[in-house]
């Protein structure tokens, strides 16, 4: 019988992808309405752009609030059960969106249903991504943790990149109902697929308190939050930066970022077990900071594209490398809780980067925002240097 420890690389990746696909389904559900909802709320329901932005942000709030619980439930109920709950929430989000469109003639009711749908979607994101990651870890040897987290990241970003244009295409071919119906169908299909898979349970002997888990992994979460700044300012403000410079093709900069991210994740994902998460993240932060400084210091579009690629390439391995270090701090039965706490720092960073950067831009200008972001990411390099020095001091 083939055990998790002696699987071939092909079989190992196949086993991981069989459950990481549920993360893809969840993030495809998130990407589908991104380009559709703001226009629906602002133009058809005639609410302000502030309300439209607030409805979109409700999802991130739900994700942040449920993330720690998602990890705890994955530990206690099992990863498969949590994935089923998450996909059920994604399907409920599609149903709420469909009902909201049916009640467009009653704007307040329609908006309420859209908000409810966003709450379901944020909850579904937390449950599905956390459950899928832990499920993948339970299917392979513990030394392959970084491989599971890496594939989970590829599923996340590829689904997000595909979701938004797919949502627009569905709207053009099937009217505004398109994204809602497909979101509902994705949730149902994913639920059926996950339900048919056998339960993989890890023997649970002891549980440690949430605060104790947080005390063990918070430093890696801080590093993740600092590294997320580069991703945040690229994804949120690069189009405005291009408009300020009177450059075209801002979307290409986002594509270049995504190419750098996925390329490095696929090419170098296995350097983490070889060199360790702290060393890999230190180098990754340095590359990301270099990309941000290149965008800041350049007035030529080609160098901005290069900078976007370096930011994507640098940020690519930050999440899995620090995630590996985070789950090392706890026993197997507490890995779900550790992942939940660790992921929360990403959610917090994404929630605050936009508003804080928006307040900073009038004071320092759009271009200098990328210089400030570079300095913040550079502080993550110093943090990793400190952790590396500390680990060498305590090593036998």
Automatic annotation (TrEMBL):
Family of this protein: Belongs to the major facilitator superfamily. YhhS family.
Transmembrane regions: 16-41, 47-66, 78-102, 108-127, 148-168, 174-196, 217-241, 247-268, 280-297, 303-324, 345-364, 370-389
UniProt domain Major facilitator superfamily (MFS) profile: residue ranges: 182-396
Keyword line: Cell inner membrane, Cell membrane, Membrane, Transmembrane, Transmembrane helix, Transport
Keyword Cell membrane included in the entry's annotation: yes
InterPro entries: MFS, MFS_dom, MFS_Exporter, MFS_trans_sf, MFS_YhhS-like
Protein name from the UniProt record: Uncharacterized MFS-type transporter SAMN05444584_1973
Lineage: Bacteria, Pseudomonadati, Pseudomonadota, Gammaproteobacteria, Moraxellales
SUPFAM superfamilies named among the record's database cross-references: MFS general substrate transporter (SSF103473)
Annotated Gene Ontology cellular component terms: plasma membrane
């Amino acid at each position: 019988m083939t055990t998790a420890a002696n699987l071939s690389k092909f079989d190992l990746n196949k086993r991981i992808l069989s459950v990481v696909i549920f993360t893809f389904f969840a993030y495809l559900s998130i990407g589908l309405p991104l380009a559709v909802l703001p226009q629906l709320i602002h133009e058809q329901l005639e609410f302000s752009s502030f309300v439209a932005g607030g409805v979109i942000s409700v999802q991130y709030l739900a994700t942040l609030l449920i993330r720690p619980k998602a990890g705890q439930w994955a530990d206690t109920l099992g990863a498969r059960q949590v994935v089923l709950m998450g996909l059920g929430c994604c399907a409920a989000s599609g149903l709420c969106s469909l009902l909201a469109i049916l009640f467009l003639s009653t704007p307040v009711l329609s908006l309420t249903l859209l908000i409810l749908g966003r709450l379901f979607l944020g909850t579904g994101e937390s449950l599905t991504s956390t459950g899928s990651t832990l499920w993948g870890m339970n299917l392979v040897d513990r030394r392959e943790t970084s491989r599971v987290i890496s594939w989970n990241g590829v599923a996340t970003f590829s689904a997000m990149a595909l979701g938004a244009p797919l949502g627009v295409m569905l709207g053009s071919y099937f009217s505004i109902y398109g994204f809602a119906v497909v979101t509902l169908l994705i949730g149902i299909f994913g639920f059926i697929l996950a339900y048919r898979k056998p339960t993989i349970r890890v023997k649970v002997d002891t549980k440690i308190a949430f605060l104790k888990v947080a005390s063990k992994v918070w430093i890696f979460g801080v590093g993740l939050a600092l590294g997320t700044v580069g991703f945040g300012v690229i994804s949120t403000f690069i189009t405005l930066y291009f408009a300020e410079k009177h450059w075209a093709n801002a979307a290409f900069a986002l594509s270049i970022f995504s190419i750098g991210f996925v390329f490095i994740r696929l090419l170098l994902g296995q350097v983490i077990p070889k060199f360790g998460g702290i060393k890999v993240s230190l180098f990754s932060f340095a590359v990301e900071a270099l990309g941000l400084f290149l965008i800041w210091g350049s007035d030529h579009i080609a160098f901005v594209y290069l900078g976007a690629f370096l930011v994507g390439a640098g940020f690519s391995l930050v999440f899995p490398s620090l995630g590996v270090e985070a789950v090392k701090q706890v026993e197997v039965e507490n890995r779900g809780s550790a992942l939940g706490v660790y992921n929360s720092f990403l959610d917090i960073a994404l929630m605050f980067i936009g508003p804080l950067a928006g307040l900073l831009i009038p004071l320092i200008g759009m271009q200098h925002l990328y210089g400030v972001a570079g300095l913040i990411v550079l502080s993550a390099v110093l943090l990793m240097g400190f952790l590396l020095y500390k680990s060498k001091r305590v090593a036998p």
